[in-house]
């Protein structure tokens, strides 16, 4: 959003009565779908500072930079984490199966998917401006933003699955990391105590100052299935060496 504001402000400075328009903006009453952006763009078009073709280009660029902004409008964390994130991964890896007692007699909600005999837990979060108190869609960040962000992957239980898949959403992209259970549990950024008294459960904070530490686990969407199989092989190997 800040990029669009800069573009519009530069264009507005070319309008003869720019100061008067800015003064009106300070007291502008916005009612959907009429807002400050509609107000400025209409004046730019009327002043012929912005042509119709240039408007189309401006609009297309904005849509491309914000194609995943709608995901930040999902207000309920459970709806985002379970309905959207799991549904999104199921589309990417159709072989994923939802676990049940029929497939796993010991199943009681410990993990989210299975791929053959591999037990998979999904964790999802969204990149937002850590210094802003506002609705998620307002403080949503682009992947090239220099602003500090904070993503918290909670209720991590390494003993309940073989592989973790992390899904992180920015305004303009979605990123994925795949790690074995052992790799998560022994990650220096993993905190083994999320709530007092909880045993075998922790959390991990992903921030602008530590995200590069996870580069070796990042995969593209079309490589998720193989990355999960590879992570499971590492998990099995680690368990054998620990035995």
Describe the structure.
There is one protein chain. Helix content is 37%, strand content 18%. The protein is an alpha+beta fold. It folds into 2 domains: 2-65, no CATH class; 69-242, 3-Layer(aba) Sandwich (Trna Endonuclease, Chain: A, domain 1), CATH 3.40.1350. The strands form 2 sheets. The protein has a 5-stranded mixed sheet with strand order 1-2-4-5-8. It is elongated, with a radius of gyration of 23 Å.
The portion of residues assigned to helices is 25-40%
Name the overall outline: elongated
Low-confidence runs: none
Count of the domains: 2
Output the number of helix runs. Answer: 8
Whole-number radius of gyration?
Answer: 23 Å
Highlighted features:
single chain; 243 residues; Trna Endonuclease, Chain: A, domain 1; 2 domains; 8 strands; five-stranded mixed β-sheet; alpha+beta
Write the layout of secondary structure elements.
Elements: H1 2-12, H2 18-26, H3 36-46, H4 52-65, H5 77-92, E1 113-115, E2 118-126, H6 136-139, E3 150-156, E4 163-169, E5 174-180, H7 181-185, E6 190-191, E7 202-207, E8 218-219, H8 224-242
Parallel strand pairs: 2-4
Antiparallel strand pairs: 1-2, 3-7, 4-5, 5-8, 6-7
């Amino acid at each position: 959003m800040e990029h669009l504001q800069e573009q519009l402000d530069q264009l507005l400075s070319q309008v003869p009565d720019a100061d008067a328009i800015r003064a009106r903006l300070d007291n502008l009453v916005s009612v959907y779908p009429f807002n400050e952006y509609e107000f400025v763009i209409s004046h730019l078009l009327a002043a012929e500072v912005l042509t119709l073709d240039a408007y189309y280009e401006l609009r297309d660029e904005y849509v491309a930079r914000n194609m995943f902004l709608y995901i930040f409008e999902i207000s309920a964390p459970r709806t985002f984490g379970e309905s959207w994130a799991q549904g999104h991964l199921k589309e990417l890896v159709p072989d994923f199966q939802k676990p049940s007692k029929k497939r796993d007699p010991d199943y009681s909600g410990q993990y989210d998917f299975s791929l053959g005999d591999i037990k998979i837990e999904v964790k999802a979060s969204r990149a937002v401006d850590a210094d802003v108190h506002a609705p998620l869609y307002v403080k949503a960040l682009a992947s090239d933003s220099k602003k500090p962000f904070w993503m918290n992957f909670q209720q991590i239980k390494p003993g309940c699955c073989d592989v973790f898949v992390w899904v992180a959403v920015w305004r303009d992209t979605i990123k994925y990391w795949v790690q074995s259970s052992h790799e998560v549990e022994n990650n220096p950024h993993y905190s083994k105590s999320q709530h007092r008294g909880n045993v075998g459960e922790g959390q991990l904070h992903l921030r602008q100052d530590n995200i590069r530490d996870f580069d070796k686990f990042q995969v593209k969407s079309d490589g998720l299935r193989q990355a999960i199989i590879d992570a499971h092989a590492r998990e099995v190997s680690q368990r054998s060496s620990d035995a």
